[in-house]
Amino acid sequence: MDTVIELSGVVAVLGQFPALAGVDLTVQRGEIVLLQGPNGAGKTSLLRVCAGLMPIERGTGNVLGIDLATNREAIRSRVGLLGHANGLYLDLTVMQNLQFWASTVAATESEVSSAMATMRIDGRLSGVKASQLSAGQRRRCALASLIVRRAEIWLLDEPHAGLDAAGRDELDALLRSAVASGATVVLASHERDRALGLATRTITIDGGGAA
Amino acid sequence: MSGTSINKRRIAIAVARKDLTIEWNSRILVNQVAPFAAIVMVLFAFALDNDGILQRVAPGLVWLATLFSMLVVIQRSFTVESADGALDALRVAGVDMGAIFVGKAVALMVQLFVLELMLVATAVVLYGVEMTLTGFCEAIVTLVVATIGLGSVGTLYGGLAAGARGRETLLPLLLLPVVAPVLIGATRATEAAFGSGGTTVSEGWPWIGLLLVFAVLFCAVGTVAFGPLVDE
Amino acid sequence: MAGQSGTGTSATRRLGVLVILMLATLALCGLWFSAEDVVQGSTVRIMYVHVPSIWTAYIAFGLTALCSAVYLSGKNRSLAWDRVAGASGEIGVLFVAVSLVTGSMWGRLTWGTYWVWDARLTSTAFLFITYVGYLAVRQLGGTHRQRARRSSVLALLAILEIPLVHFSVTLWRSLHQEASVANPNAKVALDGLMLFSLFLGLIAFTMLFVWLVLHRQRAMMLEDAFSDRGLDVAIAARRNEAGA
User: Fold this and answer.
1) E strands along chain A, which residues?
2) pLDDT: which is higher, B217 or A70
3) Which one of A14, B93, B159, C112 counts the least CB within 10 Å of its CB?
C-alpha cells in the first residue's frame, strides 16, 4: 500500500498557541479519512499542515514523500485544500472565477465546463457575481475549482456545510469518483452520520492530537 | 500533474487580467478613488489659497495626491485576495509567487496610470498649467516610468502589510519613505514638463533616469522578495 | 555562558569597564582639553557626540543587513543571526535618534534653526523612519522563524533603498545653492587634539555599540527561550484538553 501522508509527533503553532500538540497520522492512497472532533481540536490546522501551508515546529512528517520541514512548498501544487473560506473573488462572476483558477493549472475549456456541470453551477449561475451567491452555491464553486485542480490529495474542511441535501449527495458521489480515479480524501466534518457512510476510516482529533 | 510546469508568464497575465476584471466589475477606482484624488487636489487649492503658488507647485500636488490615493488602491488590491481566502488558495495551488507579484504589480500600474492621467488633467484645469508638446511627451514618459516603480514597490509592501490585524496601518509607514525618490524625481521631471517656475523641458530627463533606476531595481527585487515576505 | 541573573558575562563586564573609561576620556578631551572652534566657539563640542553617533548607526545597519543575508542564505540557519540583526537594528535606531537630536541642537546653536533641509540631515531622517518601520515589522508576531524571515528580507530591502534615497535627496538639494552652508561640521578646522578626540569618540561609541548589542541579543535569546518553554507548557495543557 502506498502511504500518502505520514505525520509523527507534529507540533504546529498559531502565534504562541499550539494548535497541534503532537499528532501522529498515517493515510494510505485511496482512503477516505474522516477527522472528527470538537471545535478548536486542531482539525483545520492539521489539514493546513498536510497542504504544506502551515509550518511545523516539532516532529516530522511527509506528504506524498515530500518532507514537511524542508520542502513543504513543493507539496502545494499536488494537493487541493478546501478551507472554511471558499477562495473566490467576490467581484468576479462564477465563470470568471473558474476560468482564473483553471488558468493557474492550465486546465482545458472542456475540463472547466465539465467541472461546472458536475457541481451544477453552469447555465444561468455562471454569469452571477460570486458576492451574490448563497453560501451553498459558493461552496459548489469552490468544489468545482478543486475538481479542475486534479489534486492527488483532497483536503476538505467541513465540505458539507451550507450544502442542501442534493448538494451533499453530489459531494459524496464526487468524492467517491475522485478516489476511484486515484485520489485520496481527508475531510474534517461535524456531520457524523453522513460522513460515516462515506469514510473508510475515522480518526478523532482532540486537544491538538489524534486520540 | 497540476501546477508544476505552468508557464509563469501566463500566470502573471492571468493574475493581471483577474485584478483588472475585478476593478472593471466593481469600479472602485472610478467611483471612489478618483473622486477622492480630485477632492484632495481641490483641498490643496483651499489650503494654499494663491493662484501663482498653485501653478508653481502643481507637479508636487499631483504626485502627493497620487501617493495618498495609491495607499487605498494597494490595500484594495490585497483586500480582494483575503476577503474569501483567495490568496491562501493561490498559495496552495503552488502558483509561483514571483508570477503573482508581476501580475498584481502590472494591474496596479495600469490603475495608477489611469489615476495619474486624470490628476494631470485636473491640474491643467484647476491650477492653470500650460504645456508645450514636448512637455506633454515628457510628462507621459514620466508617468509611465514612475508608475512602474510605484506599482512594483507598492505590491511588494502591500503584500507584507496585507490582511492580519494591525498590519494595514503599517503600509503608509513602510511605503512612503521608500517612494521618496519617486516623489522627488517625478515632481522635478513634471516641473520640467509643465514648465513651472521657469524650468525647461530638458532639465527633466536626468530625473527620469533616476525613476528608471528605481523602477528596474524594484521590479527585479520585488519578483524575488514577494514570496518570502508574503508566505507563512 | 550568560549568568543566572542577567545577560552579562565576565567578558562583557570587562568590555563595559573599558567602554566607561573610554567615554570618560572622550568627555574630558572633548569637553575640556580640546580647543574651541574659531567660528563656532564651544558649540563645536557637540561634534564629538554627533559624528560618532551617525557612524555607529551606519555600522549597526550594515551589521543588520549582513546578519539578515547570512540568515537567508542557508536552509536551516541559526536564529541567532536574526537576533543579532534585530538587536543591531534597535541600537542603530537609537544612535540615529541621538544623531538627529544632536544635529538639530547643533544647528539651533550655530544657525538659529532646529532643522535645515540639507541632504545629509534629510537622508538621516529617512534612515530613522525606515528602520522604525523595520522594528515595527519585527513586532508583527508569529513564530520565531516567520519573524526572522520577514525581518531579514526587509533589512535587505532597506539597505537597497537607503542609497537610493540618499542619492535622490542629495541630487535634490544640489539644485538649491544655499544647501552647502547648512552643515555645521563642514566648516570646522580640526587641530591635533580635536582630531584625536573625534577618533576616540568613534572608537568609544563603536565599543559601546558592541556592548549594547551583546546584551540585547542575549536578552532576546532569553525571551525566545522563555516563550519556547511556554510552548512546552502550552502543549502539555493542550493535550490535557483531550478527553476532559
Assistant:
1) 3-14, 17-28, 32-36, 58-63, 66-67, 79-82, 153-157, 184-188, 201-206, 209-210
2) B217
3) C112
